[in-house]
Write a structure and sequence with these properties.
This protein is of the alpha/beta class and 300 residues long. It has helices spanning 17-32, 53-63, 79-91, 102-111, 167-170, 185-195, 211-221, 256-266, 276-288, and strands spanning 4-7, 36-41, 73-74, 95-98, 117-118, 121-122, 142-145, 152-157, 161-166, 175-177, 200-204, 227-231. It has two domains: 4-77 and 200-210 and 221-286, HUPs (Rossmann fold, 3-Layer(aba) Sandwich); 80-177, Alpha-Beta Complex (Glutamyl-tRNA Synthetase, domain 3), CATH 3.90.800.10. Helix 2 (53-63) links the parallel strand 2 (36-41) and strand 3. Bound molecules: glutamic acid.
């Protein structure tokens, strides 16, 4: 198998202990399979990106011995590819423009006695779906995927085993291009994983919930499905995912070996007193012994 893996940080700040775990796990998995490991900068949400954070992340990764095998791809330069994917979805009636504001959506849901709230964002009631009359004269604000029914997605996560989500019920018609003109993460990640020939996605469990949406997009765009492995998160003192928001410290560039040891311990790898390259080689042997299979690609 021609394994191609990736680490896809958002340059909204420097790497911290949590993001290093994802970087290390994806690197070890790629190397253990004799594969290629690529870094992709997910700077599609430009207002959240911090100038220079991409360079700092690359420097931090390099200090930890983790260097992309191919030139680093920047999502901010890929608008034409995302537009092409949206055009294709539109051509096949899988996407449609939506003129609803958040308030419109809440009011429609309330009028139906529904208050479905999912991570503080309502399941879209389908107001602007073509079969419901489309925009009805409203200007287009965003573009949404017409999630097909049935939309039961099942797949086997290489870490967590069998998974299931009914995307229509749990999420609804999700946004592909936002009202502020920015491309949504879901579309960008699917287009880029496909274009880069990614066969394996190893990332934190906070992203598990996104996977069924990404699989729906892969099925509709007729691109291959990567295999997924969602690794346990590093939690902050408040029990939540370690993040810049809850005070995660940037990795100490003076002690990359120490930072790597911490990340490796989180992944259940043995403590290693050696240099960065020596430690990586030791963990690689250990990682290669971890069984992982995925015999069930998802279907719609
Ligand atoms: N850019 C995302 C993040 O930093 C990761 C996306 C992914 O790995 O699919 O959380």
């Amino acid at each position: 198998m021609n394994y191609r893996g990736r680490f896809a940080p958002s340059p909204t700040g420097p790497l911290h202990a949590g993001s290093l775990v994802a970087a290390l796990a994806s690197w070890l998995d790629a190397r253990a399979h004799g594969g290629t490991w690529i870094v992709r900068m997910e700077d599609v949400d430009t207002p959240r990106c911090i100038p220079g954070a991409d360079a700092l992340i690359r420097q931090q990764l390099a200090a930890c011995g983790l260097v992309s095998d191919e030139p680093v791809l920047y999502q901010s330069q890929r608008a034409s590819m995302y537009q092409r994917a949206l055009d294709r979805l539109m051509q096949h009636q899988h996407a449609y423009p939506c003129g609803c504001s958040r308030k419109d959506i809440e009011e429609t849901l309330a009028s139906r006695g529904l208050h479905t709230d999912r991570h503080h964002s309502a399941v879209y009631p389908g107001t602007c779906r073509p079969e419901n009359g489309g925009l009805k004269g409203k200007p287009a604000r965003a573009w949404r995927l017409a999630v097909p029914e049935p939309s039961d997605i099942t797949w086997t996560d290489l870490q967590l085993g069998p998974q299931h989500q009914n995307v229509g019920k749990a999420v609804g018609d999700f946004v592909l291009k936002r009202a502020d003109g920015l491309w949504a993460y879901q579309l960008a990640v699917v287009v880029d994983d496909a274009d880069q020939g990614i066969t394996h996605v190893v990332r934190g469990q906070d992203l598990l919930d996104n996977t069924p949406r990404q699989i729906v997009l892969q099925l509709l765009l007729e691109v291959p499905q990567p295999r997924y492995r969602h690794i346990p998160l590093v939690l902050g003192e408040n029990g939540e995912k370690l993040s810049k928001q809850n005070g995660a410290q940037a990795l100490d560039l003076n002690d990359p070996a120490g930072s790597l040891r911490q990340a490796a311990a989180h992944l259940g790898l043995p403590s290693c007193p050696g240099t960065v390259p020596e430690s990586l080689q030791t963990w690689l042997k250990d990682w290669a012994c971890t069984p992982a299979t995925n015999k069930h690609p998802a279907t719609l």
